[in-house]
Design a protein that fits this description.
This protein is mainly α and 112 residues long. 73% of the residues lie in helices and 0% in strands. The longest helix has 17 residues. It comes from Matsumurasca onukii (Tea green leafhopper).
């Protein structure tokens, strides 16, 4: 569980490449990202936080802060590899969590 939390935290940090903390983080492997994406229980908790339906841990707060920026394509300092990983995460959420995806899109486009 701790490893999965660390992997997702590193992934979210990569999404925030414009922050100094993210610049110091190492890149997460595609295998590690896949492991984090397939932990349904953990992702569900983070998505509930991001949509305002559940409590937030530090990773959830970071996701809630960064998701609007990433969804708007505002990642000017992201490398090509980071951009591909971000697209993979968003695509996974869109395919596997359609209700949460819809809530996120509505929330971030209306500014609620």
């Amino acid at each position: 569980m701790h490893l999965r939390l660390s992997i997702l935290l590193v992934t979210l940090a990569l999404m925030a490449a414009s922050t100094k903390a993210a610049e110091r983080m190492s890149q997460v492997s595609d295998e590690a990202l896949d492991m984090a994406l397939h932990d349904k229980r953990y992702l569900t908790r983070q998505l509930k936080c991001a949509t305002g339906e559940g409590p937030c841990d530090p990773v959830g707060r970071r996701l809630k802060t960064l998701a609007p920026l990433v969804l708007r394509g505002a990642c000017p300092k992201c490398t090509e590899a980071e951009t591909k990983q971000i697209q993979k995460v968003l695509s996974h959420v869109q395919r596997n969590y359609p209700k949460e995806w819809s809530k996120l899109i509505n929330q971030f486009t209306t500014g609620s």
